Amino acid sequence: MAELGQPALLAEWTALLAQEDDLTCTVSDVLGRGAALGADFRPVWPSAKFVGPAVTVRTLGSDLSAVFAGIEAAAPGSVLVSDSHGVRHSAFWGERTTRAALARGLRGAVIDGACRDVRAITALGFPVFSTGVTPNAGLRLGQGTIQEPVALGGVPVLPGDLIVADDNGVVVVPQGRTEETLRQVRAALQAEAALRLPSPSAPFKEKSHDRI
User: Fold this and answer.
1) Sign of the CA dihedral 199, 202, 208, 209?
2) Burial class of 98 by CB neighbour count within 10 A (0 to 12, 13 to 18, 19+)
3) Average pLDDT for 192-198
4) Per-residue pLDDT tens for 78-114?
5) pTM of the entire structure?
6) Is the dihedral angle over the CA atoms 106, 107, 109, 115 positive or is it negative?
7) What is the pLDDT of residue 2?
């Protein structure tokens, strides 16, 4: 993504994510409420969060070779996004992929399928979102592709799209819109803050009728 070739822009997103507990909700709002992955995508450990450009992977069957290939191809600061077709009887992520991703400087992983080695991933502190957990490991048969358009739960993801994840889930910001979206998110956060009274005991002033 050309925009995220600017380190300062990604740094701004990173700082905002650190400041805001529910950033994905605001990002989803400004993107028309259709940019988030479905509720099946959950963090392996609580309070996991990350933001970074996508390195996309498409696996075939239970073959996780493309996941390792994607890690090897990823630049530091990237997020691995695996279209594993929702397969949950085999794991496409575990301790070895986590250690490999950490060595490459990845920021996180999103798997449309299962993972395993939950305790090890948690201990290593690497953020992973997946649609399930199983002890069964996938195979390495040399199949699958990387860095092409994929879809996770029906949501398109292109290489370089910005991936934002927190306790609420995962949102995809289209490449080329990261700077514009950042401005809109900041404006929305400022507007939301203006609705609140300074006293926690006072009633909340709800002036916006299109948010929950």
Assistant:
1) positive
2) buried
3) 78
4) 999 999 999 999 999 999 999 999 999 999 999 999 9
5) 0.91
6) positive
7) 47
CB 186 within 8 A of CB 16: yes
C-alpha span between 36 and 153 (Å, rounded):
10
The whole-angstrom separation of Cα 196 and Cα 207 is: 10
Amino acid at 78: S
Q: What is the structure's pLDDT at 107?
A: 98
Contact 17, 23 (CB under 8 A): yes
Structural contact between residues 10 and 77, judged by C-beta atoms closer than 8 angstroms: yes
Structure tokens, 186: 């900041």
Dist. CA 203–CA 64, nearest whole Å: 52
Distance CA 24, CA 166 (A): 7
Nearest Cα residue to 171 out of 9, 14, 34, 7: 34
Closest CA to 17 of 210, 208, 123, 162: 162
Dihedral sign from CA coordinates of 174, 182, 37, 98: positive
CA distance 89 to 23: 32
Residue ranges of the alpha helices (H) in 77-142?
A: 95-104, 118-124
CA 139 – CA 131 distance, rounded (Å)? 19
Handedness of CA 62, 64, 66, 71 (dihedral sign): positive
Task: Return the structure tokens found at 54.
Answer: 């996508």
Classified as helix, coil or strand, 27 is helix
